[in-house]
UniProtKB/TrEMBL annotation:
Location(s), subcellular: Cytoplasm
Major location (coarse): cytoplasm
Function noted in UniProt: Catalyzes the first step in hexosamine metabolism, converting fructose-6P into glucosamine-6P using glutamine as a nitrogen source.
Annotated catalysed reactions: D-fructose 6-phosphate + L-glutamine = D-glucosamine 6-phosphate + L-glutamate
Quaternary structure, from the entry: Homodimer.
Active site: 2 (nucleophile), 602 (for fru-6p isomerization activity)
Domain of life according to the entry: Bacteria
Name of protein: Glutamine--fructose-6-phosphate aminotransferase [isomerizing]
Length: 607
């Protein structure tokens, strides 16, 4: 979950490395560092702090090749000694994203050879191993190849040597890495966001790849050590998409980008309708024959999958299971042949999800549909079918526009599946599709209610706990709302199906327990009202978010916010927005670091 950047150029790379690192700081911010190299110059700069602190310490430094790292601590506390880059012998510097599982055995072996370790990290073994093999062969490429052959675990690494100032080596296994191609300069990074200011020509390294970067060329080798060619692509993402503009935080910016993100995601749907062709040429046959659907995901993506289960089951009658990827991968059950595995990820590089997808393939003759926001990611390359959301860069750690575009993609999938299986009348499918056309405008109208949620947040910020309630498709939205409040405002919160109140959580309700409830005007409304009465009878304060037509729920509620219009089956998307705004303003009121909440990072690329 760390962020790494590397560069070799005919000009000073330090400003480029620091700018790239600032764009990756959402991946880790416990400490940061630079490795710098030119002919006759070899140095590192490290701080137990953020990139701004590193930039201040590195002021005046110049180099023609370098590495940069921002850390999310796993092995060893956030200290300067544990900060990257790590030194191997006296001539090798490395940066590393991932976890080396056999680091204890390697450390013991290297210590026996006389290597002295100065950090608690698993990463330092890589630096000493490269130095060890370099001493044997005086060939940096061969030394790195030998080193990665000894490593067990997940990694993306960058390597710099004092004795080879004309090259930088990088390699990946299990963690993402992308190359950036320039003129007289080459780059690598763990995320394209770091490279957008300097190039839009990218090469996505495949599993096991190693690359040698020189100023005027890039050479790539596969896991077997064979020279290979990987396709270079022009990435159509503007560099300024990572800029804050007039917004205070990236999360706020990304909340207000949702109408555009949703409209972009729906562009082909508007042209084609909810057709199986949106997912790939083989989708119609696979959809028609599938005996079951299993959804695997993590975090907010898991909540999106829980919502989709209701749509899929209602519109197709197929059995649907939803699994947390990190749990699914260690279960032993078989999969029925033909099962559709829906793998959901913003980044397409989530380690547990990739492992779960591969595990599913081992359990039966399944097909994988990826719903992802990043083209050319590992998930998209390994899937059979694909739907790309069009959320654009999402930098805030708490998912906002990625989550709502996932919901939209899953809604389209459920409708396309029903069309392929002929389980809905034409009029029903038309109604489902028409709801999508109205969605971006309705989202705009809900966002216009931001100031009202800010007023709620002034009150909510004084509490230490909160309950979120919903029924049917709004139960997972209650889970998502609680997650957002925990993530960025550090308020303990739990999401519940409203009918579960009497099965335990009602014991917690008193005047110090705010209850945030979501309601829509459907057949379950009066049951939700009964649940709210139970809260009110115990002096609980109800903060009600409701569609029009839910007036029976207003009575006795402490605060009520009525949405501009009903969204029908898309209510989970629309009701997500006020929960995001409420959490955002609560976090601002409490003074937390909204975009970089403590102990969290954006992309979980290690188990």
């Amino acid at each position: 979950m760390c962020g790494i950047v590397g560069a070799i150029s005919e000009r000073n790379v330090v400003p480029m490395l620091l700018a790239g690192l600032q764009r990756l700081e959402y991946r880790g911010y416990d400490s940061s560092g630079l490795a710098l190299s030119s002919t006759g110059h070899f140095d590192r700069v490290r701080v137990n702090g953020r990139v701004a602190d590193l930039a201040a310490k590195a002021q005046g430094q110049t180099a023609l090749a370098g590495l940069a790292h921002t850390r999310w601590a796993t092995h060893g506390a956030p200290t300067e000694l544990n900060a990257h880059p790590h030194l191997g012998g006296d001539s090798v510097l490395i940066v590393h994203n991932g976890i080396i599982e056999n680091h204890n055995a390697l450390r013991a072996e290297l210590q026996a050879q006389g290597y002295r370790f100065t950090s608690e990290t698993d990463s330092e073994v890589i630096a000493h191993l490269v130095h060890h093999y370099l001493e044997r062969a005086n060939d940096l490429l061969a030394a790195v190849q030998a080193t990665v052959g000894r490593l067990t675990g997940a990694f993306a690494i960058g390597v710099l040597s004092r004795d080879f100032p004309d090259r930088v080596i990088c390699a990946r296994r299990g963690s993402p890495l992308v190359l950036g191609l320039g003129f007289g300069e080459q780059f690598f990074a763990s995320d394209i966001a770091a490279l957008l200011p300097v190039t839009q020509r990218m090469i996505y390294l495949e599993e096991g790849d190693l690359a040698e970067l020189r100023r005027n060329e890039v050479r790539i080798y596969n896991a077997a050590g064979e020279s290979v060619t990987r396709q270079a692509r022009t990435v159509d993402v503007a560099a300024d998409s990572a800029d804050l503009g007039h917004y205070r935080h990236y999360m706020q910016k990304e909340i207000f980008e949702q109408p555009t993100a949703i409209a972009n995601t729906l562009q082909r749907v508007v042209e084609l309708g909810c057709q199986s062709a949106l997912f790939g040429p083989e989708a119609d046959a696979l959809f028609a024959a599938a005996p079951a659907v299993r959804i695997v995901a993590c975090g907010s993506s898991y909540h999106a999958g829980l919502v989709a289960r209701y749509w899929i089951e209602e519109w197709t009658g197929l059995p649907v299971s939803v699994d947390i990827a990190s749990e699914y991968r260690y279960r032993k059950g078989r999969e029925q042949d033909g099962t559709l595995i829906i793998a959901i990820s913003q980044s397409g590089e989530t380690a547990d999800l990739l492992a779960a997808m591969r595990s599913a393939r081992e359990r039966g003759d399944v097909k994988v549909l990826a719903i992802c926001n990043v083209p050319h990611s590992t998930l998209t390359r390994e899937s059979d079918l694909l739907f790309l959301t069009q959320a654009g860069l999402e930098i805030g750690v708490a998912s906002t526009k990625a989550f709502t575009t996932q919901l939209v993609a899953l809604y389209v999938f459920a409708a396309a599946l029903a069309r392929s299986r002929k389980t809905l009348e034409a009029a029903q499918l038309t109604e489902i599709t028409d709801a999508l056309h109205r969605l971006p405008v309705l989202v705009e109208e809900v966002l216009a209610m931001d100031s009202k949620l800010e007023a709620w947040a002034q009150e909510l910020a004084h509490y230490h706990n909160a309950l979120f309630l919903g029924r049917h498709t709004l139960f997972p939205i209650a889970l998502e709302g609680a997650l957002k409040l925990k993530e960025i405002a550090y308020i303990h919160a739990e999401g519940y199906a409203a009918g579960e109140l009497k099965h335990g959580p009602l014991a917690l309700v008193d005047e110090d327990m705010p209850v945030i409830a979501c309601a829509v005007n459907d057949e379950l409304l009066e049951k939700v009202v009964s649940n709210l009465r139970e809260v009110q009878a115990r002096s609980g304060k109800v903060f009600l978010l409701a569609e029009p037509g839910c007036e029976s729920a207003h009575e006795g509620s402490h605060r009520v916010l009525t949405l501009p219009a009903a969204a029908g089956p898309l209510a989970p998307v629309v009701l997500t927005l006020p929960l995001q705004m409420l959490s955002y303003h609560t976090a601002c009121r409490k003074g937390t670091d909204v975009d970089k909440p403590r102990n969290l990072a954006k992309s979980v690329t290690v188990e």
